[in-house]
Design a protein that fits this description.
45% helix, alpha/beta, eight-stranded mixed sheet
Amino acid sequence: MEQKQITYKHSVLSYRVAGEGNAIVLLHGFAEDGAVWRNQFDLFPNHRLVIPDLPGSGASELMENTSMESLARSVVAVLDAEEISQCILIGHSMGGYITLAFADHHHERLKGFGLFHSTSYADSEEKKETRKKGIEFIRRYGSEEYLKTTTPNLFAPVTKEERKELIDEHLLRLRNFSGEALVSYSEAMIARPDRSHLLSMTNLPVFFVIGRHDAAVPFDVSMGQSHLPRLSYIHILEHSGHIGMLEEPEESNKALQSFIELCEVTIKKEAKEL
């Protein structure tokens, strides 16, 4: 994939891009960058695949006043730079919150969207308190210690038992992550609104990837929202926690490819009906 950069809000915004055709955009989550999708880099040779490093992650600089809406606007900036009018947008974890903010404010630019281990619901009061404690920990001990403590719990028990090297590799990629960025993201996630109504209102295809052992977005929560859209595509990763694109890459790829095919069929059907 080609690495590109633009200037957005006086900051560097970096993204990866490859291929030609209808556009697919993959958004990473909290304490990740675009490389978390590395098993998907070559998955869509007949599409325009765009994978941003969100502001504050990877090679992208942190902006002021971080919110799910401002992060969604940074995705719009990338689309505009690539002259992409519409795309299929799929977000992992926090990237799913940004996907929903995008759908809320830029729905006309979507052909379909997906939540990959993510939720449309706002944080519960208990979850908000957990995030606030995380912010305190980061400010006291730094981002590296925080991620060492929290990241292994995102993986399924079988991954922790049998594939410790995968977790170690993932942690190694996070070692220089900015504490300021993690705090900004955490505060933005606390402040985000409930957007479950968008799932009920949209006529677009909506994709749900659900980890059977996801401790961050519990299975019952994911399943509870998956019936809301008119057209849902649901895939359960039986051996994954919260990072299925790394824990079960082949199954994740099959699910992603199937959803893209579903979107293409839906788009062609609607075009014929016009």
